[in-house]
Amino acid sequence: MHAVKGAWCCGADSQDQRGRFDAYSMSIIQSTNTILAAGKAAKDAGQAVTDVAQTLTGSNMHLEQVMGQLINWSLDAGRHILVAVVVYVIGHYAVKFINHLVTKLMERRKMEPTLQTFLRSFVNITLQILLIISVVGALGINTTSFAALLASAGVAVGMALSGNLQNLAGGIIILLFKPYKVGDWVEAQGTSGTVQEIQIFHTILLTADGKKVYVPNGAMSSGTIQNVTLTPNRRIEWTIGVEYGEDIDRVRAVCTELLKADKRILPDPAPMVALTELADSSVNVLVRGWVANADYWDVLFDMQERIYKRFNAEGIGFPFPQVTINRGKE
């Protein structure tokens, strides 16, 4: 009995040991799996770090290439800009020197002021265009393609600015046929004044009150122009109104005496005094004479004042508008 009991005890101890061994084995297996999973995660993390490092290295290399190209382009552009600035500065002073040289040459040859102003304007514009093309070429732009672009754009601009081309043609016509020149007093396009300059596109007039008027050459060449300076003498006239009932012979005698007393009024053609109109409130007398161009304005104002003073001294009345109302009986 004691032997059976000892055998049972030994069997129970053996089962308990086997259970602990199985639990220990499972723990070892789980730990091994955990270690293997951690190792795989570490490997994956290392690969990720490697990929990120490679990506950053590639990005840095690409950024360095971009920065290098940008620096090279900046240096090249800076060199072109510097050359363009130098070309512009030198060209600017060269244009001024050539314009001055052309002006001196024309003055030495005693060319007409009209032609001088036109040629100065033409030469200056031509030189400015050449300077712009030179600066564009210094910037590294292909001037051949630029010239072709200018030519094609010139056609479109020419169509849009046909009026300016007409003014250019008008300036050439004015230079050829010379209806007026610098210094002449002209009346055209609703304005009058002394011709100061004849440029490529415009004629500049200085009016009697000191204003500068730019008149297009196209209109000047195709419109009506009154050139007062072409003839040495100019006719001057006054229209004087006297009252009804005044002795017209006495009025004529006073006016004739005043005309003969002024030596600036030419004897040939002879002065004239004539009754021209029986107006509503006055009898109008026309007084005419011829003077030199230089004396026109002085004689016009002086004689007007003398006529007024002399008529007052002679008792010749000046009329003023009157309205007579006759009221009928109711």
In the CATH classification, which architecture of the domain at 233-314 applies? Answer: 2-Layer Sandwich
User: Fraction of residues in helices?
Assistant: 55-70%
CATH class of the domain at 233-314: Alpha Beta
| Beta-strand share of residues | 15-25%
Give the neighbour order of strands across the main sheet.
Answer: 4-3-2-1-5
Distance between the termini: 180 Å
Described by the principal axes of the CA atoms, the overall outline is elongated
What integer value in Å does the Rg equal? Answer: 53 Å
Describe the largest sheet.
5 strands, antiparallel
Uncertain regions spanning at least 5 consecutive residues:
1-10
Name the average pLDDT.
79
CATH topology of the domain at 233-314: Alpha-Beta Plaits
The number of helical segments is 7
Structural class designation: alpha+beta
Strand element count: 8
Element string (H = helix, E = strand): HHHHEEEEHEEHEEH
What's the SSE blueprint?
Elements: H1 2-108, H2 113-138, H3 143-160, H4 162-177, E1 185-188, E2 191-198, E3 202-206, E4 212-216, H5 217-222, E5 225-227, E6 233-242, H6 248-261, E7 272-278, E8 283-292, H7 296-314
Antiparallel strand pairs: 1-2, 1-5, 2-3, 3-4, 6-8, 7-8
